[in-house]
Amino acid sequence: MQPTSSSAENSGTSTEQYNGFTADERAAMKEHAREQKKAAARRGSRAEKEAAAERDVLAKIAEMPEADRILAERIHAIVKTAAPDLTPKLWYGMPAYARDGKVLCHFQSAQKFKSRYATLGFSDQAALDDGAMWPTAYALKELTAADEQRISALVKKAAG
Q: In the chain, what percentage of residues exceed pLDDT 70?
């Protein structure tokens, strides 16, 4: 059974049909559900939970292909230094950094959705507002010292 057509299709502005989420998107959502279940099952102090979450992030980084792993390790170190109060956690299978459980920024490996570059993204919780328009994601292929300084400043600003 085909999904019903959208109002855009009915109005004649589009000839494409919506076929749902891609296999990669469905896999990311399933991974997020597993992460939530795993986090809910943890017992213990806040410090123990945060340590377990950081181990999960580091394990996920270790699984990445070398190019993504190198970037993710650097991003992890930069975030931990620039905003030590942020808590590492997995978010849709990606390393992320949160305050009070709300993600401020995350690293998406190029391999995650078969992209040509990795991405450092910021959520609407990040205090990056700059007028009426500002970037919330950055493509990463490699990191120079200047890039690392810029990321550090962005993370500090995002964390407020």
A: 88
On whether the CB atoms of residues 17 and 9 are closer than 8 A, the answer is: yes
Strands across the sheet containing 118-122:
87-91, 94-99, 102-108, 118-122, 137-140
User: Which tokens sit at 122?
Assistant: 């910021």
Instruction: Name residue, tokens 């808590």.
Output: 87
- Pair 139, 154: CB distance under 8 Å: no
Contact by Cβ (8 Å): 74, 40: no
Q: Among residues of the chain, what percentage have pLDDT more than 90?
A: 70
**Beta carbons of 61 and 108 less than 8 angstroms apart:** no
Number of other residues whose CB lies within 10 A of the CB of residue 122: 22
Compute the distance between CA of residue 113 and CA of residue 108 in angstroms, rounded to an integer: 9
- 12 sits in the region (left: phi over 0; alpha: psi -120 to 50; else beta) called left
What is d(CA 65, CA 140) in angstroms, rounded to the nearest whole number?
Answer: 14
User: For the segment 77-90, what is each residue's pLDDT rounded down to a tens digit?
Assistant: 999 999 999 999 99
Q: Which amino acid is at 106?
A: H
Residue pair 69/62 in contact (Cβ under 8 Å)? The answer is: yes
